[in-house]
Amino acid sequence: MAGELRGTLAIGEPCPVCARSVATLPPAAKAPAIRTAQRAVDAAAKALTKAEAGRDAARAASAAADGRHVAAQERATAAGAALRNAEDDVRAAEATLGATQSEVVDRLGQGDPKALLDERERELRDADARLRSAAAAAAVARNSLDAARRDAAEAAAALSGLTARLAGSWGLLGESRTPATTTEEIRDAFGELVSVLAGRHEEAAAAKEQARAALSEAEAGLAAQLQALGLGRDGDFTDASAAARAERAAADERLLRLEQLLADGEDLDRRLMKASEDLALIRRLRDELQPSRFLAWLLAEERAALAELGSVHLEELTAGGFRFTGDDSFRILDLHAGDAERSPDSLSGGETFLASLALALALAEMVARGGGRLDAFFLDEGFGSLDADHIERAMDGIGRLVASGEGRLVVLVSHVDLMRQMIEDLIVLEKDERTGQTVVVSGAARDTG
User: Fold this and answer.
1) Spatial separation of the C-alpha atoms in residues 170 and 162, rounded to whole Å
2) How far apart are CA 113 and CA 106, in angstroms?
3) Is 319 helix (H, G, I), strand (E, B) or coil?
4) What is the pLDDT of residue 442?
5) What tens digit of pLDDT does each residue of 157-188 get?
6) What is the 8-class DSSP label of residue 372?
7) For the chain, what is the largest distance between any 2 Cα atoms, rounded to a whole number of angstroms?
8) Residues paired with residue 413 on neighbouring β-strands, in sequence order
9) Residue 68 CA from chain centroid, whole number
């Protein structure tokens, strides 16, 4: 074999076994050497085959390692992206937390948010309790008004009955009187009736006695005359006697009626006094429970609640300078002057504007608590009298006013240049020098359709 290989070798050419360039030709081998060389070649060929198999296995292992490396890189890339996303989420959460804390401070003030929220919830429960109490008071007032109306009707019926009885009594006496309408007139009329009845009673009693005396005298005279004439008690004399007795019976009946009228009038003063007291109470209830007075009381309660809530915003807008009084007068407490009470007219233009803005914020909150909506506010001027610090405070308050209602429109009218830098949705107006009309310069277009 070695001999055959030697025959194929050439200087400068690659060796078919080791692929190296042949520098010199090996000496010609003898037959044993050739066989030995042949075995060496065979062994080398086997070693080459094994080496190639190892090389292929190494290449496969390298490819697998490259795949695992690529997969590891992809996983590392995904992990890095997830880490970056997590960091972004953490930063967003921190920003949201900061904004939430700032909003909590804006809405509730400085301090423990939970304690402040509990305090607001207590205030809300107190407001609800006051509302329920007012509703209960209204129901009690309505019931009292109904009872007063029923009492008034009963008193009016009683007075009408007394008037009818009075008229009937005067009719029995054959007297004509103007009908009484008021309790004083009825009391006076019954007093006069009692006096007249007493007089009539005395007259009737005297007449009765006179009639009895006359009858006795007449009967005695008649008996004497009849005895003198020898006549009996019959004929025309009997009829005249019967007529006299009938007249006396009628007089007795009239006397009994007069005595009954006197008995009925004994407690007249007491009944008239009771009726007068009931009528006075009914009139007072009628006056106090008029819709205008009751609504005025309810409105005073709501104004006091508005002033109390507005004080929180006013104190914040004025850096602790002012509050409203605790009643419904909307007077001002100057906190920098020992809580001195001032009239709203004593405020400057800027202070008046901040007070109005505080009440607008409070009104929006109260309407929202009651389930209502205030969708539009127009604030005209007032900014020109504020310094930069108070303008920023006012704008913060206006921002809360906008944020507290979904879809709420707040329109600010001002000539202050600083306001233009703080408002995004800006409409600029100017006056046309020729026509004097107001024209839109920028921010909105007139609809010509």
Assistant:
1) 12
2) 11
3) coil
4) 82
5) 776 776 777 676 766 666 766 766 677 777 77
6) -
7) 228
8) 380
9) 68
